[in-house]
Amino acid sequence: MNDNVKIKGMGYAAAQRRINNHDFTWLDTSDEWITSRTGINSRYVTETENTSDLALRAALSAIEDAKIDKHEIDTIIVATFTPDMQTPSVASILQAKLGLNDCPVMAFDLNSACTGFVMAFQTVSAFIQTGRTKTALIVGAETLSKVMNWNDRSTCVLFGDGAGAFICTQYASKESMAHFANSRGDLEDVLSAEGLQIQDISNARPLTGGTLKMQGQAVFRFAIDAISDGIRQVIEQSKWSLDEVDYIIPHQANMRIIAHVASKMKIPQEKFIINLERFGNTSAASIPIAMAEAKANGILKEGHRVIMVGFGAGLTWAASTAVL
Ligand code: UT7
């Protein structure tokens, strides 16, 4: 038997305001262009809730789904690149919002952009397998609307705000888990959002936040290779065949990316869990939102073998297997 990780509960939260393609009246774009090039019909954008508020709603729903006492949580990791503040971390803010202040909790954020949730799952799996963690809350949460240039039609129509959460615990199983992660830090310019600037302290100026910049076609090509590589790597490690995998949950960026991977790898498209048509690309939140929604809809079930595969800024990419 192996020390394995059980995803005991899942939850998700969408931001309050739904924006449909035809609502982008200030842009030179169309529903036809966005739908045919991306598969996205709508996305949710926050009006008042920050990243920790969306994370809280997703976390409460995952705790309820897992049927655990929230006080059992000893580890909180939030994958995000759009935190409420530079510091403290969203994970610490979330601990307070969950009312877990009197419990010993290891809380920190992890930034690997859209790959962040898979990295959080891999991190927590290592903690669980070494006994460091008993019950973990991992969350992918983003308020990408904060880093959007709302006049740049090539990016702002793609992204949305939301959060997805897992409760993970230890369990003994015959299956072993497979994890893979890789990075190409030299490709930073392909997808980035500026952070705080180094200041000339003798001539201090107001601080400004950076907006997201992307070379769409370069990311598109990278994404197809990254998803294919991630799937191949964990299939090889796990000794599963692709036929034995019930579902693949890719980062939800563009329907055409997923269709390319499906056709290139000869995987039926029905094997991919996809909800980007309604949520857009929610970066680190996209995989847990897709999985939690699929579980709530009865698509993902106990015992299913799944592969989560993410890619994003860094450039980074990662994949993990799990048995639900
Ligand atoms: O989480 C990681 C995230 N990012 C991604 O995964 C993004 C990957 N890339 C993509 O999804 C696609 O490259 C995009 C959806 C971003 C763009 O689609 P594309 O088919 O690669 O279009 P393109 O960049 O080649 O642009 C084609 C045309 C351009 O006009 P011209 O130069 O041909 O006149 C763009 O200016 O489409 C124009 N365009 C738009 N037109 C209407 C770009 N965005 C829009 C828009 N509406 N929203």
What can be said about this structure in brief?
With 324 residues, the protein is of the alpha/beta class.
CATH class of the largest domain: Alpha Beta
CATH-level-2 architecture of the largest domain = 3-Layer(aba) Sandwich
Helix count, per DSSP?
Answer: 9
Which shape, going by the Cα principal axes? globular
Could you give the order of strands across the largest sheet? 1-7-6-4-5
Bound molecules: oxa(dethia)-CoA
**N- to C-terminal distance:** 17 Å
Say what oligomer this is. single chain
Could you name the ranges where pLDDT drops below 50 across 5 or more consecutive residues?
A: none
How many E-type strands? Answer: 13
- The share of residues in extended strands comes to 25-35%
Helix content percent band: 25-40%
Number of domains: 2
Examine the coordinates and then state which fold CATH places here, giving the name of the CATH topology of the largest domain.
Peroxisomal Thiolase, Chain A, domain 1
Element pattern in H and E: EEHEHEHEHEHEEEEHEHHHEE
The computed structural class is: alpha/beta
Give average pLDDT, whole number.
94
Radius of gyration: 19 Å
The largest β sheet comes out as: 5 strands, mixed
